[in-house]
Amino acid sequence: TWCIPYEKIDISNFSYDPQTNDCLPFYINRLSPSALNRDHDSAFAFTLDYIIHLESLGARVVNGSHTVLIETSKAKQASIMNRLKIPQPKTVILNHISQIKKYIADFQFPVLIKPNCGGSGTGIQKFDNSGDLRVAIDIKKIDIPTNQLFIMQEFIQPKDGYIVRMETINGKLAYAMKVFTDGTFNLCPSDSCDNVRSSPTLDELVNCPATSDSSVRFELYENPPEDVINAVERIVAYAGMECGGIEYTIGRNGQWYIYDINPLSILRASFKEEYGVDGWGLLADFFIDEYHKIVADVLTV
Is the four-CA dihedral 165, 169, 173, 175 of positive or negative sign? Predict the structure, then answer.
């Protein structure tokens, strides 16, 4: 068992001098898109700049700037899956509400309107038919992010009432979990999120209120399909994603679709007691191994 001292950086209240070369040899990026929902807008943008600065000095950053760009853009995620020819829901990227009507006839309903950079399901709106969507456009009832970037995506109704999150570490599948959705889009697997989850209302879907009446539940998925594992590991390799979760669902037609790439690992702590799967332990072991590689290189220079 290794005990390695570390320093936690509170990026919400931080500063650095870009004209100095002072940095540590090893960093771990834990940026979450849901930081935007916790009033950390400045920290969110600040993190990418700081990571790029560290990388310019030669620091090793686990899940560096390239994965930040993927984590924070559903547009980039869709392009990756298209490049790799991996099944995904029909998706278009937009920067103005008026663009939606151009694509309505091309979609099967229901459809989702999502922020390009989301987090814990916040900001997702679901429309069951084209009429409802057209009315929402006309009366300006569609909520879009401040930066105007959002996506329109076909909603894949989970065939068996659950989606699957595939957790990867060091390029390989660590474990998979079934997430029974209960109709909500806040499927954050963190145990702490269990207390801030709710079922969606008619007008908005998931704003992470302080009380929960949701029955979202998580179960270990012991034998996910090999073709999905292969697709997930191809995404991880192409994206240079060292750890994180990838989510897919199986539609009523029996086809699986990958719809979300999360380079931030959010592991289910309760799985250690429930199933003997210590995801955080596995992730810590990976971090420690990578740290030792860097420290060994520094000592031999």
Answer: negative
